[in-house]
From TrEMBL:
This is Urease accessory protein. Residues 1-24 form the signal peptide. The keyword Hydrolase does not apply. The keyword Mitochondrion does not apply. The chain crosses the membrane at residues 40-59, 71-89, 95-113, 120-139, 151-170, 182-200. It holds the Pfam family HupE_UreJ. InterPro entries: HupE_UreJ. It comes from the Bacteria. Keywords: Membrane, Signal, Transmembrane, Transmembrane helix.
Length: 201
């Protein structure tokens, strides 16, 4: 089974499980938190904002033919699939050790990988990104408001994450085509250097 054939069903399955997240939360009848709240959530923390943008920046750097072109869509897709899986786990009370450390590590690692324009095998890059995504998803699940509509809220933060990935890919490709290849690298460098500070943010 190819990575593409695996990734698409995995994402579909993960999205189908989002409503299960709602079952962990009392107060559902009010449905006071929905799509727009979930959409705003990733933009409320520099850790989520930086990591999700970095996924797009790094994936965009891979687009030079062959497997690199597939990384542009497969790596963000891998992130989204495990983001949902992590959110379902977190919302249903699964204790994921080291989540905060994993989130900070994701910013640092993805930042440095972007700064150096590192090129990894397609599967290795997807696996690394998916691991980080699970940590981010678990944090989203734990932070989900108690009165949230799990499906609407989940679709909101998945949509926001996809937008950040697309923005990163777009900026990376634009920089490549306009001769500003250093721009994504400098952004990655800033993330790699500043990432540890998030521990005290």
């Amino acid at each position: 089974m190819t990575l593409r054939r695996f990734a698409l069903p995995a994402l579909a399955t993960a999205l189908a499980l989002v409503p299960a997240a709602a079952l962990a939360h009392p107060g559902m009848p009010g449905h006071t938190h929905g799509f727009t709240d979930g959409l705003a959530h990733p933009f409320g923390g520099l850790d989520h904002l930086a990591a999700m943008t970095a996924v797009g920046l790094w994936a965009g750097q891979q687009a030079k033919g062959g497997q690199g072109d597939r990384a542009v869509w497969l790596w963000p897709l891998a992130f989204l699939a495990l983001l949902v899986a992590g959110a379902v786990a977190g919302a249903n009370g699964l204790a994921v050790p080291g989540v905060e450390g994993g989130i900070v590590l994701s910013v640092v690692a993805l930042g440095w990988l972007t700064a150096f324009g590192a090129r990894l095998p397609l599967a290795a890059g997807a696996a690394l990104i998916a691991t980080f995504a699970f940590c981010h998803g678990a944090a989203h699940g734990v932070e989900m408001p108690a009165d949230a509509d799990g499906l609407s809220y989940g679709l909101g933060f998945v949509t926001a994450s996809a937008v950040l990935h697309l923005a990163g890919v777009g900026l990376s490709r634009l920089a490549e085509r306009s001769g500003l290849r250093l721009a994504p690298r400098l952004a990655g460098l800033a993330m790699g250097v500043a990432g540890p500070l998030l521990l005290w943010a």
